Amino acid sequence: MVNSESNQYDEAAFVPGHVTGFFSAHPDENPAAAGSRGAGITLSHGVDVRVERGGHGGTPDDASRQVRLNGEAIEIDAAARVLEALDATDARVVAETPLPVGAGFGVSGAIALGTAYAVNAAYDRGRSENDLVRIAHCAEVEAGSGLGDVVAQARGGLPIRLDPGAPDHGQLDGIPASPRVEYVSFGRVSTEEILSGDTTALTAAGERALSDLREAPTPERLVSLSRRFAREADLLTDHVADAIAAVRAAGGDAAMAMLGETVFAFDGGLSAAGYDPEVCSVHPAGATLLAEDGGDDDC
Amino acid sequence: MVNSESNQYDEAAFVPGHVTGFFSAHPDENPAAAGSRGAGITLSHGVDVRVERGGHGGTPDDASRQVRLNGEAIEIDAAARVLEALDATDARVVAETPLPVGAGFGVSGAIALGTAYAVNAAYDRGRSENDLVRIAHCAEVEAGSGLGDVVAQARGGLPIRLDPGAPDHGQLDGIPASPRVEYVSFGRVSTEEILSGDTTALTAAGERALSDLREAPTPERLVSLSRRFAREADLLTDHVADAIAAVRAAGGDAAMAMLGETVFAFDGGLSAAGYDPEVCSVHPAGATLLAEDGGDDDC
pTM of the predicted model, to two decimals? Predict the structure, then answer.
């Protein structure tokens, strides 16, 4: 606890990681209506976000020290925008995650959403969950760092994003399954670079995949349609293509995380192909405020 | 395991219990549009529902043995309707719960929803989560056993039902908090009896409570508005009124579960008043298909 005198105002949230398998981009002048359609996986590996009320000076030259991730100062535009929207620029945000950053796990969306939940509690802002999701979604869209992670991370499970946008705009559905998840990450892909380029072909491929998934929403189809999408959208890197080929040669299936040089598979797909993947499960819940006492409960 | 030869087709789901604090009733000829507005609490105490594919003969005179709850044969119209809708009348449904039945915990809704999830997996029906929620919601409405538990139990957390109906119709929101929950139950109230009577005054009181909760969605207001609703809707029994008074005299707050002779409070409210309540937490997730291996995972 870095700032022990403000402990009584600390609040913390957990937000699952989110891997998008395929998507279509839907820009809009209204950030609450902008976003993406698509489908993905929320992970039991996620981000713990703690907010210390008054833990940060709030002066402009302090800005670079407002957010820490795994012990390092980091600028996360989406989180700064959430603090502004909730009138909490004197807060300090401390995030911890085992997930690789910039590799397609929605870490920036998780920090934005976790900040919204924890600030709402620490500052008694009295907002509803949909309000907080909307604020974090708009912050992420305006920062250009993501289009659909936040609404998926607020839902949990295997989310299908039927419509783009924040809760008032975007309907969600889900695949009813809880497979084991494996992933390996080879590095970063710039979300901003892809999203700011021509997304016409990508979006057409994403719409096809969504339509095909809705016909039979199963984990197997999520992976095969995501694999097809990455090829059609021309996003495969050599590392990723090799790993997918190896998993298929071993009798499994795998696909690429949008957007990162990351491969994911269900059940034992990557292990069977000789990789040493990270292993986790589908997270059944969305973002959650952590109980104050932090202790075990008896039920 | 009663029917060990059909194990390979067994699938199981967990559905949280749900206590409604206040509601308004909205009948409609279309069961997917019918339902209730209101707010409540999903509980970490819930119902485990296992479906054995082909475990039941499916003949009419077997009907009473199709569903077992805590080891006893029981007729649950909503579950039978789910089996019919998913073309799985030869299934056997085995449910287990620590929750009191008929006392306002949404056990019938949980069995209907858990049956939908487990049948979809055991019979490879390829439905989406929204499809399964819609089927269970309609079954519960047509059975007359509930109006809003299913959609709340599919969401988890502290659900606010903004609109009546299944996922295509009803929008949900939530209170962002994870308080500890205490409850004591004195007995049953017939949901069917209340819902089939004149609900005009009840619905007016429920709409007022919803409007007031949306102004500041916090756990404290959920309890105080629920307490007001039970009084205005004239649903308090002597047992319940006494317990609520005792909790308030001890400095806490409590309200009545809709519909059961049950009192709930957050944090230590009932304990502080000298009761020996059941204790659980808010369940962060909605209904979840249980992983096949049933073992621990490492993350």
Answer: 0.93
